[in-house]
Amino acid sequence: MLRLFSLYLCILLTLLSFSTLAQSLNDEQIKKIGPAIWQQVNIKSPVSGAQIISAYQNKQSPLVSLSEMRGPAVAKIPLSTLNEERWFVLPQANYLDGGFAYWQDTQGIRLIADFSQGNLSQSAIIMHGQAFQLNLETNSQGVLWLYLNARHYAKPVSVTFLDEPTFIYQQFFINSLSIMSITIMLTLACMAFILYLKTGQNVALYCAGYIGLHGIGWAFAAGVFGVFYSFKSINSHYFGMYIFSFAISSASAFAYYLFNFHTVEKTRISQFLKYFSYVAFISGFINLVLPFHWVFYLAHTLAAIWVVLTLVLGFKMLSLNDFRAKYFLTGNIVYSLSLVVFILSHLNLFVTASAELWVLVALAIDCICILLSLSEWLKIKQNDYINALEQSRIDPLTKVGNRLLLQEKLNSIGHYYLIGFIDCDGMKTINDQLGHASGDKLLINVTELIKKELANLGDVYRTGGDEFICLCCASSLNELEKLADNTAKALNKAHFQLKQTWPQSGLSFGIASSSECTDYKACFTLADERMYAAKYARKNNTPTDHNTTQQI
């Protein structure tokens, strides 16, 4: 009975004193109170307003801001207003396992809001924080009691009061930008994953992990998933911190593959990226057994290391004219600046509606830049592949097409064509007497002469040591006959010009056309036979037809 009397006496004294201490909400759009307004208590789950009032009154310790603290806390905020208004109250806490608001006036004390993050029926939803309605009548006077319980308070917890128009604007601004940024990240992650499925490149997979895990983590931290589903006995807002280590691991692996460190000689920065990725990945599993405040500190330590690492890496690679770094560096500079704003806001040196929103928007911009750097990497790889493909079809000595390119042309050849089989005479003698360097010069000279004389008639390919093939196409049978005659003349001219420079050499050739054969393989065989007939005829000084080398 005595305890009950004492409780009512405390309530009465509170009502008598609040009029001189009350915060006036008259003619104001925004009012911020705190942050040193909190009394830590030992109530895990309050059952009534009287319980938290009693716990608050029984504590004699100084009021605190809750920065870097954890556990239950209660704030007492006397309020008064002259007009009937609807206000929105925003306790500035990132994570809340429990949040309750009680209103105390002359009519007693009553629960007016449950703004716990697990509550799906909140009266007001704002990303990266909590909010609830406070409806005040004309000439209202009373005390707002707030109860919070969290595993970690990341920053000083102040309480902001917004009138309805201001809150609606701020709610739209924060929620729309948050959802848009998260949607951008998840969309880009899907694009990167599709690129991985199409290309099989690890860099695309790690890019998808980098962007996607950040997007999913921020969706949990901002409360997007909590709007639609509440996990029993688990606050889903915490998941973002647990996912972050894996996101950083993917980011480090992405940078490692983006700059092709896996294919070049090991350097200190490449090794640091590699092992930092391992450490971040392992820490993600270690987090599962750590208290949340240690998970929070570890995540921010990894973030700080990552920011410094990316800036050093970006400037280093850009100094080496690696233009993939321009997007990589730009995105991380934006992200780094947002973290500066985030830290300053936590130190109350910079005022912003939502410091987390700055980081989230900057991260979305960073992810766009990351995907651009991936596209630059894929573009370089594509150009390298095209160049390698072209080089594999080009003879490195003579710079004309080789057997692979010839085969590609033959696979798509038309109905009217001719094939010239050309053999360079005296090649062995020149190699033996003058050396292989002179033999190479001879082959280069032969190629230049054939290309010069053939001009627009057709193309020449080197298919063996001293063997060449010319391939010429026509649009009709009559044109093919003329083409065969002109090709023979061109090759004969090249033969005589070669003899002037290399008397011990010459060209033996045979020509066969599609009008004589059933397919290009038969043409090859016929041209080859005619070439050897011409070579034999020259040795025996006998005449040849117009499809073979003319008599010297």
Automatic annotation (TrEMBL):
Coiled-coil intervals: none
An example molecular function term from Gene Ontology annotations: diguanylate cyclase activity
Signal peptide from the UniProt entry: 1-22
GGDEF domain: residues covered: 415-547
InterPro entries named among the record's database cross-references: 7TMR_DISM_rcpt_extracell_dom1, Diguanylate_Cyclase, GGDEF_dom, Nucleotide_cyclase, Rev_trsase/Diguanyl_cyclase
EC number assigned by the record: 2.7.7.65
Membrane-crossing residue ranges in chain numbering: 172-196, 203-229, 241-260, 272-290, 296-315, 327-351, 357-374
Main enzyme class: transferase
Keywords: Membrane, Nucleotidyltransferase, Signal, Transferase, Transmembrane, Transmembrane helix
Pfam family for this entry, one: GGDEF
Protein name: diguanylate cyclase
Organism: Pseudoalteromonas marina
Taxonomic classification: Bacteria, Pseudomonadati, Pseudomonadota, Gammaproteobacteria, Alteromonadales
